[in-house]
Amino acid sequence: MVRIFRRCVPLAAIFLAVTTVSARAVDEIQVYNAEIAKVGQWTFQLHMNYAFAGRKEPDFPGGLIPNHALNGTGEWAYGITDWWEAGFYTPFAVDQDGTPYYNAIKLRQLFVTPNAEKRELFYGVNFELSYAMPQFSDTKWNMEIRPIIGFRKGDYELIVNPIVDIGFGQNGEAIFAPAARFARKLSETLSVGVEYYSELGPLQSFLPFNEQQHNIYGVVDFKVGRFDVNAGIGYGLTPGSDRLMGKIIIGTDLTEGETSKPMQGPKSFRKADNLVSGLPRP
Q1: Are 257 and 77 in contact (CB under 8 A)?
Q2: How many H helices and E strands in the chain?
Q3: Tell me: the pLDDT tens digits for 88-122?
Q4: Structural contact between residues 52 and 82, judged by C-beta atoms closer than 8 angstroms
Q5: Angle, CA of 40, 41 and 46, to the nearest 5°
């Protein structure tokens, strides 16, 4: 793992050096907790979020208007080793007029500490590469670098994802968008928490505070049969934020995987004793 992170750090530095994410539609509102699928296991998550009261202007010319827009993605993931998970996304959106849009594809590689759900201190890093349609981003090619740092003690956990979104090309920028989660397990099938998502602006020059995005979500995690659910309501704290948002993520295991490993589910939704993202793709 140490060798992998040593290789990832200079790679991230190269990407930051050659670029100058641009504003884009968000299909995955999730805090990653470093838990991955078992070796040989396929998992699936459906991410959806809706702006009940959102920004009424697009983030860039020709972009989707956030207000009353539904954004989402399907996410398929596969456990390669006990520290490496690969996945891909199929993002989509429906605008305020009911017009559907498809946003090509995203690919990701997630590297973590093995058995993160059993550790007090856990960490990892996720890389996503995406090709975006013009309604979703003002750059065709984008990359997300998402470090994962978490601490768990008893029924409580605190996780931070200091995300950098990178857009390649003429309109590309490197945007700092940190996210965090604090949660408590109330029972074997229920946990509650607070999640925080932000977009501060380009790394070289943050936006004025009123133009930044700062959103706080009250969230609940629970199980329905074989499905793990994360649902939340978010409130925007600044004029540059969507004022009222709703989100839901539904995840399940598609295959059993390696039975010698402890059972795990998708990133934010594990078996009941591991409840307590997204925080997700993404």
Answers
A1: no
A2: 1, 14
A3: 999 999 999 999 999 999 999 999 999 998 999 99
A4: no
A5: 150
Type and span of the H or E element at 147:
strand 141-153
**DSSP reduced 3-state for 16:** helix
Q: Output the six-digit token pair for 23.
A: 């504003």
140 burial (CB, 10 Å; 0-12 / 13-18 / 19+) is: middle
| pLDDT tens by residue, 215-249 | 999 999 999 999 999 999 999 999 999 999 999 99
Structure tokens at 254: 């598609």
Beta-carbon count within 10 A of 218 CB: 13
Paired residues of 107 in beta bridges: 88, 129
- Specify whether the CB–CB gap between 107 and 127 falls below 8 A: no
Residue carrying structure tokens 């074989």: 226
> Cα–chain-centroid distance for residue 193?
16
